[in-house]
Structures are given as C-alpha cells and as structure tokens.
Amino acid sequence: MDNAEYFNVLLDNKTYYSLSLIATMLIYYVFLRRFVFSMLDPLFYNFFFSALASSTVFFLWSVDKIDDLLLFHFVFTQSVFFVFFVFFEKIFSVYFFRLKRNKIHFFSQWDNFFYFCSLSSFVFLFSLSVYFFGIPALNEMDGGSRLQNYNDSLFSNIKRFLDVFYVVIVFFALKIIFISNNGLVGRFLAYFGLMIVIFYGVSLGSKSFFVEFLSVIFLFFFWFFGSSSNPLNRYVKFLIPIALFGCILMIYSKSANAFYYLVYRLIISGDTFYMSYPDNAYLLIDSANWFIATFNGILKNLHVISQDEVLTPLGYKLYRLYYPVDYIGPNPRHNVFGLIYYGFFGAFFYSAILGSVLGLCRGLWCARRGGRWFESILFSLLIVAASRLELDIALAITGFINALVIYPLIFILFYFLYRFFSFSSSSFFEKNS
C-alpha cells in the first residue's frame, strides 16, 4: 500500500482512524507516563511517534487491510519491547550503580581547554563538510536528497564527529551560562557555540534536529538539577513552540502550506506498517543476511564486508516496492525489521533485546545522574542513541558508536594535547575582575 492508497482508505474511514488513534494514545499514556519526565524528554518524542505509528496498525486491521496474525505479531513484539524496557529500567535505576549526587564543580583549566578544542574542531569540520559536500538542506531544495551524502564514507565520518561535538558544546555552553559564569569571553563563546550548533541543524535540513536539540538541553538540566528547582521548567513553554517553529522551517521549502505538510508527516508516522503489512508485502523483501542487515554500517566501516556486500537499507527496499526512487524510505521499526530478517518467532527475541538495551541505558542514566561532566555527556549520548532503537536499529547503532568510540577517542586525544601543551593557568576564560 503506497501513500496515496493509504490516504484514500483513511479518508473513507475517518471514524475508525480517529478511534484507533485515541485508543492507542490513551494506552501509551496510562502505561508509560511515569517513564517520561518532560515533554522535552527524548522518550516523550519516541513514545509519541510510536503511538502514532501503532495506531496505523490498529486502523488497518479495523478496515480489514491486515489479518489477525499480523496484528497479533505486532501487539506481541510491541508488548515484549516495552515489558523488557520497564523491567531493565527498574533494575538499573533502582538497584544498581546508584550514585550519590556530586557537588556541581566549576570550570577547571582542563574543562576550558576541552570546550575550546571541541568548539574549534566543530567549526573546522562543519566548514570542511560544507566545502566538500555543500549544505544538505540546499541540496534537497535543488531536487536532490539530503540522504545521498550519507553514502559517502568521508561525509558519514565527519558527521559522526559533528554529532558528538554538538552535544559536548551544548552541555559546556549551558554549564557556562547557568552554573559557572566564566566571564565575558566565556559567555560569548558559550552563546557562539549554541548559535553555530543551531546553524548546523538548519543546514542539515533535518526536521527532527530541533526536537533532538531540545532533548539534549533537557538531559543537561535534568542531569545537573534534577526535577526539582530545575531552571528549565521556566522555559519549557517557550522551547516547545521553538521546536515546532524549527520543524515548520525545515519543511517550508517542500510545501506552500507548511502546517498541512506537518500534519501529513504526523499521519504517515506508520508508513513502515502500511507499506509492509497489507497484502503481506513484506514477503517480497529479501530476508537473507540478518547479521549484515543489522550491523550494516559498522561492518562496512570496519571493512569486514566489501561495498558490494553492503545491503540496501530496509526502508529504501520498502519504498522501492511502490516508487522507483533511491535514498528515500521509512524508518524500519523493530516490529517489521524483526519480522523480515529474524522471522515470525525470532522477532520476539529481537524486540526483547532492543527493549532491554533501552531500559538499561535509561536506568543507568537515571542512576548516574549528578556525576561528573564526562559521565553526563556519555550517558546522554547513550540515551539519545537508545531512544532510536524502536524506530531504526541503524540509527541507534550509529549513536552507540558515537557514544562508546568517538566520544572517548575525542576525550583521550584532547587530554593528551592538554598534557602536552601544559595549558597555562592564566586562561582567557577566567572571570573578568
């Protein structure tokens, strides 16, 4: 079922769609509300779009577009995912690695050096990316796809570092502004860092960037302040409209009516399901090489597989069933990905593993909250990566590599540079007297 057919079915059965949407939203709210701390929490974004996508499955079943067996498979895999998430989140947030909250420390010379190197590296790599590959948002406006660049190894590697540096910059900039007050020059570099990160997000043309950007801000405040006396609480009512404005700005170039296009994007959140479930279209996808399909990107980067062995992403394959185009496709949610590559029963174990990893990362993030800044960035990168597990395993693995490989590598490299140069005690970040 392609987009046009789905909308025709939806328009002919608006009541069924509305009931499916309301019922699904209520179910998610009742069972998952205690795991979400704010509307800026990355899990809120994840659960909200998960509910939108899930309502698509119930709607298709209610109008006899999918059979009972596929509905059962979806409900079971979704239930397994959340049961294991709740179980492991409870274990790791309550019973393991509980950390007594540390006193918030002000900037040291090493902190200053790390932030300055991160900001300089970000500006350099961003400029390098623009010079060689252009601005993805403008490429898309010219009729191309911003996703084409992701097939270039150099661009992908540069973006890995940029995605880590931008989180580092946001954390350090907010610490300067709200905690350390490092003088006029320090505050200037903090605001400059935030502005260059926002410009980076606009240049990507990614409609979800501003939501993720605000989620990173939430992670910073919750890590250092907790839920009580949190300065972020005063700004939430302003930040959410900013995120919506950013999303509308990203899609304005695609449609004369950005609002209706935004509604359209929300309605097709379940595109993975209506492209794969009706008429058992998922059976048309080659299901071989489950291991390569799962770890496609990392195997390619490590040169374990050749370029010829790299599999086309599942979302692209689904889209090609209906449209003869490349570099476009839905995110392959765990239910469909597991069904195609792991089989009917294997998908249950696949969903259980993903739910466990999400629960583990969330639990550790809650338990370690209040730790040093290295931990704050590490666990925030982990929770951002883990929140993508339900949506797209490839995006999640990329995020885990950023957190567990790229970030520690940056930290070690800058630390050796700091020791080598024996950074002077008269830092230009010191407060102005």
From TrEMBL:
| Keyword flag Protein biosynthesis | no
Where does the chain cross the membrane?
15-31, 43-63, 69-92, 113-138, 158-177, 184-202, 208-226, 238-263, 339-361, 373-389, 395-418
The answer to whether UniProt assigns keyword Transmembrane helix to this entry is: yes
Write the record's keywords in alphabetical order, separated by commas.
Membrane, Transmembrane, Transmembrane helix
This protein's name: Oligosaccharide repeat unit polymerase
Native organism is Tolumonas auensis (strain DSM 9187 / NBRC 110442 / TA 4)
Highest lineage ranks of the organism?
A: Bacteria, Pseudomonadati, Pseudomonadota, Gammaproteobacteria, Aeromonadales
